[in-house]
Amino acid sequence: xxxxxxxxxxxxxxxxxxxxxxxxxxxxxxxxxxxxxxxxxxxxxxxxxxxxxxxxxxxxxxxxxxxxxxxxxxxxxxxxxxxxxxxxxxxxxxxxxxxxxxxxxxxxxxxxxxxxxxxxxxxxxxxxxxxxxxxxxxxxxxxxxxxxxxxxxxxxxxxxxxxxxxxxxxxxxxxxxxxxxxxxxxxxxxxxxxxxxxxxxxxxxxxxxxxxxxxxxxxxxxxxxxxxxxxxxxxxxxxxxxxxxxxxxxxxxxxxxxxxxxxxxxxxxxxxxxxxxxxxxxxxxxxxxxxxxxxxxxxxxxxxxxxxxxxxxxxxxxxxxxxxxxxxxxxxxxxxxxxxxxxxxxxxxxxxxxxxxxxxxxxxxxxxxxxxxxxxxxxxxxxxxxxxxxxxxxxxxxxxxxxxxxxxxxxxxxxxxxxxxxxxxxxxxxxxxxxxxxxxxxxxxxxxxxxxxxxxxxxxxxxxxxxxxxxxxxxxxxxxxxxxxxxxxxxxxxxxxxxxxxx
Length: 503
Ligand code: CAA
Description:
Blueprint: E1 7-11, H1 15-26, E2 30-34, H2 38-57, H3 63-71, E3 73-76, E4 87-90, H4 96-109, E5 115-118, H5 125-129, E6 138-142, E7 152-156, H6 165-175, E8 179-183, H7 191-208, H8 213-223, H9 230-237, H10 239-253, H11 262-269, E9 304-307, H12 311-322, E10 327-330, E11 343-346, H13 352-356, E12 365-371, E13 375-380, H14 386-398, E14 402-407, H15 414-430, H16 436-447, H17 453-460, H18 462-476, H19 485-492, H20 499-502
Helix pairs in contact: 1-2, 7-9, 7-10, 7-15, 10-11, 15-17, 15-18
The structure holds acetoacetyl-coenzyme A (CAA).
Residues 51, 54, 58, 60, 121, 144-146, 148-150, 192, 195, 227-228, 233, 237, 241, 446-448 line the site of acetoacetyl-coenzyme A.
C-alpha cells in the first residue's frame, strides 16, 4: 500500500527544523511544528517569518503566498498534537539520548501507519529506530542547510526498513522539489562524512599555523570555486553540530583526523557557535569589515626570477612581462639564471626550501602555486624574508589574482585540503557505500559545489591527484592521505579518467 503524506509534523524548529517546515509548507503540505516551550516556539516562528519575509522582499513570493504558507503551519508545544500526522520529521539537537526519548514518545503518540523520520546529521538511524515498536517505519530524511535552498535530501534506510519505504520517501522529496539520494546507515552518510572530514582538516591546518582563517577561506572559495570557505561554512552549519558530527565519525572510524579539532571544542565551550550566536570563526556582525588581502603597490624591483618550466610558469612569465617586469627563467636543475634576481618565484614540484638553500640569497625565494583563474598560493619558507614574501604577494595582485599566504608544506593549502577529500570519495566508492554518480550529485546538491569529487578528479587528472596524495602522505604520514588502492590501480592501468571506469 502506497502511503500519502499530507500532514507532516516537524519536531524542533531551530535553523534546520524551521527550514524543513518551510519546505513542506511551500509544497502545499500541512505542517505541525513542535517545540519544547513557548520561547523556543516563538523563535521557530520567527525563523519562518524571517525566511519567508526575505523571499517576499526579493520578489520571490507575494505577501498573500507568504500568509498562505504560514497558514499551513500549526505551532504547538504539545507532542500529542502529532497524533494525526502521516509523517514526523525530527530535527532536535544531535544528542542520542534526546532522540531516543523523542522517538519513544512519537511511537506512543502517532497513528500506527505514521512514518517517523530523523534529520540526524550522523547518528545511527538504526539505533533510533530500535527505540520504537515500528523500526520498519523509521527512516532518515536528511536535509541540508539552508533547507529551503539546498536541493539534496539523503534518504537513509536501515537493515530493517520496510521494503518500498525509501522509494516513497524519495518520491516525497521529489514532490518537495528536492533530489533524493538513498544510502545505508553509516556515520555521516555521504555528505557529512566527506564534508566534515574536510572541514575538520581545515581546522587542523589552521591550528598548525599553515595559513590564516581568511587565507584558507579565500583559497577554497576563490581558488576551487566552492560557495563558501571552510570556516564560513562551519559557522553556517553551527560549530556545536560540526563538533558532534566529527565526534560520531571518530567513534566509528577511530581515525585521529575525525577527532574534532581542539579549536572547535574551545569555540563551542565559549558559546561561539557560528551564525546562530553571531560569532564563531567569523564575526557575523553586519558591520564587521571585510578582511580581504591588503592592497599592494607596484614592487620596486628590476628582475624577477622564475623557477619551473610548466604551463603555470609560462602563464606567470607572460603576465609579468605584460605588466612591464623583467624576468629570468631557470629550470630546477640549474638556478644560475635567477641567482641575481631581486625575488625568485618557484613554480615547480620541488619543495620550496630545497631550492632556496641552493641560491646565494635563500631569503629571496618564495613558492607560488596558481589555483584556478583567481588565486595564487604564496608559500614562504622558514628563511624567506618578509620583504620577498610581500613583493611576491604584490606581484600576484598585479597579475589579477588573490594571494593566499601559506607555509612551505606539501600541497600548500588547496591541495592539502582538496586531495584527501577526493581520496575519501574514492574510498567511499571502493567500500560500495554509494555510486560515483550519487556521490557527485550529493556534493553538488547538498553543498553547492561546482562539481562532485569524481568530476573534479577527472578535471584535475587522476595521476596528478595520486601523485599529490603521495607527496602529502610523505610529508604528514597521515594514513588516510595514502592514495586509495582504486585510484592507484586506475593510474597504473593508464586509464584517462575515473568516471568512465566506475560507472
Ligand atoms: N533560508 C532561505 N533562503 C536562503 C537562506 C536561508 N537561510 N540563505 C540564503 N537563501 C536564499 C536567498 O534568499 C537567495 O535566494 P534567491 O536567489 O531566490 O534570491 C539564495 O538563497 C542565495 O542566497 P544569497 O544570494 O544571500 O547568498 P549566496 O549566493 O552566497 O548563497 C548559500 C548562500 C545558498 C548558503 C551558498 O553560500 C551555499 O550554497 N553555501 C553552501 C551551503 C552548504 O554547504 N550547506 C550544507 C551544509 S552541511 C549540512 O547542512 C548538513 C549537516 O547535517 C551538517
